[in-house]
Amino acid sequence: MLTGFTIGLRYDARWEAAANFEPGEASLNKRDQQDVVDLFVIGGGINGCGIARDAAGRGMSVELAEMNDLASATSSASTKLFHGGLRYLEYWEIRLVREALIERETLLRAMPHISWPMRFVLPYHKDMRFEGDTPTSKLLSIVMPWMKGRRPSWLIRFGLFLYDNLGGRKILKGTTSLNLAGTPEGAPLEDRFEKAFEYSDCWIEDSRLVVLNARDAMARGARINVRTKVSAAEQIDGIWHVTLEAQDGAQRTVRARMLVNAGGPWVEDIIRNTVRINASEGVRLVRGSHIVTRKLYDHDKCYFFQGKDGRIIFTIPYETDFTLIGTTDADHTDTSQKPVCTPEEQSYLLDFASEYLKQDISNDDVVWSYSGVRPLYDDGASSATAATRDYVLKLDQSTGAPILNVFGGKITTYRKLAESALDMITPFFEGRDKIWTAGVPLPGGDFPVDGVPALCEKLRAHYPFLNARWVDRLIKAYGTDAFLVLGDAKSATDLGQNFGANLTAREVAWLVENEFAQTAEDIVWRRSKLGLRLSTQEIKTLDAWLTAAPPQQRAV
Ligand SMILES: Cc1cc2nc3c(=O)[nH]c(=O)nc-3n(C[C@H](O)[C@H](O)[C@H](O)COP(=O)(O)OP(=O)(O)OC[C@H]3O[C@@H](n4cnc5c(N)ncnc54)[C@H](O)[C@@H]3O)c2cc1C
Q1: Which of 18, 146, 193, 262 could form a disulfide with 48 if both were Cys (CB 3.0 to 4.6 A apart)?
Q2: b/e 313-327 (16+ beta carbons within 10 angstroms → b)
């Protein structure tokens, strides 16, 4: 049975605001008398939350609405890499690659709990084909016509040299060459792969990144509304009147000086049907799917595989016991269709990886799949793979009040995108132009970039009843906040009901009170990936527990 403490009373003052968060109707009514806010942000993906955080930190009054859960769309469905994007060098997207490469280390330092360096092994084989319509392919077909879509190894090494040096590196290791025979990296691969290059990029827990940005925005005064849709926005006398609709149908209006449309895949829909402005910009929706299999190999490095069709996929060690494989590229025209990994996409990924791996993999190895839609700026590119991954920000004042529409982008460049957005926003608000987010840690990230092992040891010493795997999970989710999550617990029993995989009532309460979670799905698929470990029955029990009484009302 659970011991007596009331969740919500044990945190420091910084998080008290979070405990006052009231989703749905209650929050709508309370806010009726709200004055005009400076900035209203539509969309609680990484771009909306990043912009809200940056603006709130500059002292602007900010409100954000997300129609579902935070990161419920594209921002929880990425490959989860802070990366420059090696393959974008083929398209000569130098600005994008350079900005992203520089950004990797800035972000690593600000969030060493949810992000860490990864090594990528790129097996080399002379017959590997590359995408045919890249500028590099076109140039090579003129100067080296006999290569027919192939790349000499010196050219790949040159690309990696640029990748190592375009953005400067202090933390991440540079490229090395590998002889695969007899090595752990070579062991899972077919024998025809004898040589490889190994380079660095970083892992990022994408949906936790979004939530931590939202938490930090709120700690700096922003109001974050989840499960609240912006159903209309109208300009009256230079002020936006934004209609919000909670999931129970309750409505309220917020007045705002400026709007940010960070609706991701819905950005164009919001322009045309919610705000109703005449903008010529469009979005190209490109679906990307991933599969998660049982763990396919023992070492902790990723593979970068080059396919016969010129595309690439990654295989990535995932959640200790699994391997993540992705991604695909397919046009996705209808935002009302939830993206899913189709049987064809699953077979494509299995066949692609099996070309490289000694052991063929099949549907039986797949334990989960997910899919997301890239909201790419429509630049008229001929193929989904070729469409630009760069972000485009468009300011519109045609109605008399300003709105900034956000297209494209990457998780990796979200902070820079927010800075660029604020460059366009601050001219409307005097004295708010001071940039500040580089170097400021996200909640729980206030420890050295290589400090995870020391922090794990500290947590274990403080809570000796935790096992090593539990400690590792808590530190890589909450960082220094893990101590706040566990509070005064002296034993596992003090943490309340264990829903499975050491997800306890106290942790669930933290997620509800401080991280905007409301349902079991929010908790097991976005605040964590414990859905990979919990049974259907355990998830149902968690849902029933949450429905019976939300933790802020429950003495456990
Ligand atoms: C398969 C795939 C792999 C990727 N891999 C990587 C990677 O490894 N590294 C990387 O850097 N980038 C990667 N990306 C890109 C990255 O994920 C996206 O650029 C980023 O997540 C987009 O964020 P966003 O905030 O614009 O959109 P979203 O995350 O989709 O957020 C938009 C939000 O707006 C909400 N919304 C829409 N309309 C309304 C409304 N009317 N009212 C209220 N809310 C509304 C939606 O519910 C949604 O949550 C990948 C993308 C995909 C699809």
Answers
A1: 262
A2: bbbbbbbeebbbbbb
What was the pLDDT predicted at 146?
A: 67
Low-confidence residues of the chain: pLDDT under 70: 1-34, 129-130, 146-150, 381-382, 384-385, 550, 552-556
Cα separation, 194 vs 185, whole angstroms: 11
| Of 391, 364, 363, residue with least CA distance to 376 | 391
Between strands 302-306 and 312-318, the pairing is antiparallel
Which residues surround ligand 1 with Cβ inside 6 Å? 42-48, 65-68, 72-75, 77-81, 83, 229-230, 262-266, 270, 274, 288, 327, 372-375, 409-412
Q: Enter the pTM of the model.
A: 0.92
CA dihedral for 156, 157, 163, 165, sign (positive or negative): negative
What span, in angstroms and rounded, lies between the C-alpha atoms of 391 and 189?
A: 36
Residue 382: its pLDDT value, please?
Answer: 64
Token pair for 549: 């009484």
Identify whether the C-beta of residue 27 lies closer than 8 Å to the C-beta of residue 191: no
Whose alpha carbon is nearest atom 2 of ligand 1? 78
Task: Give the Å distance between the CA of 90 and the centre of ligand 1.
Answer: 24
Only one residue has tokens 């989860």, namely: 80
Q: Cα–Cα distance between 504 and 506 in angstroms, integer?
A: 5
How far is ligand 1, taken at its centre, from the CA of residue 48, in Å? 9
Q: What is the pLDDT of residue 430?
A: 94
- Amino acid identity of residue 512, one-letter, is V
Q: By three-state DSSP, how is residue 491 classified?
A: coil
Token representation of residue 107: 């972000």
Q: Each residue of 238-297: pLDDT tens digit? A: 999 999 999 999 999 999 999 999 999 999 999 999 999 988 888 999 999 999 999 999
CB 46 within 8 A of CB 411: yes
Pocket perturbation via mutation, ligand 1, pick of 411, 415, 525 by most ligand atoms within 8 A of CB? 411
Q: Report how far apart, in Å, the C-alpha atoms of 548 and of each of 15, 110, 553 are.
A: 24, 37, 10
Return the exposure string of 209-246: e unless at least 16 CB atoms fall within 10 Å of the residue's CB, then b: bbbbbbbbbbbbebbbbbbbbbebbebeeeebbbebbb
Q: CB of 202 within 8 A of CB of 172?
A: yes
From 205, 270, 410, the mutation candidate for ligand 1 (largest count of ligand atoms within 8 A of CB) is 410
- Which amino acid belongs to residue 356? Y
Q: 477 C-alpha to center of ligand 1: Å?
A: 21
The sign of the dihedral angle between the CA atoms of 141, 144, 145, 147 is negative
Model pLDDT, residue 281: 84
Give the integer Cα–Cα distance in Å for 438 and 552: 34
Q: Tokens representing 8?
A: 């919500």
> Cα–Cα distances in Å, from 368 out to 268, 385, 537?
31, 24, 17
Query: From the CB of residue 83, how many other CB atoms can be counted at a distance below 10 Å?
Result: 27
User: Given this model, what pLDDT does residue 549 score?
Assistant: 73
Q: Separation of 45 CA from ligand 1 center, angstroms?
A: 5
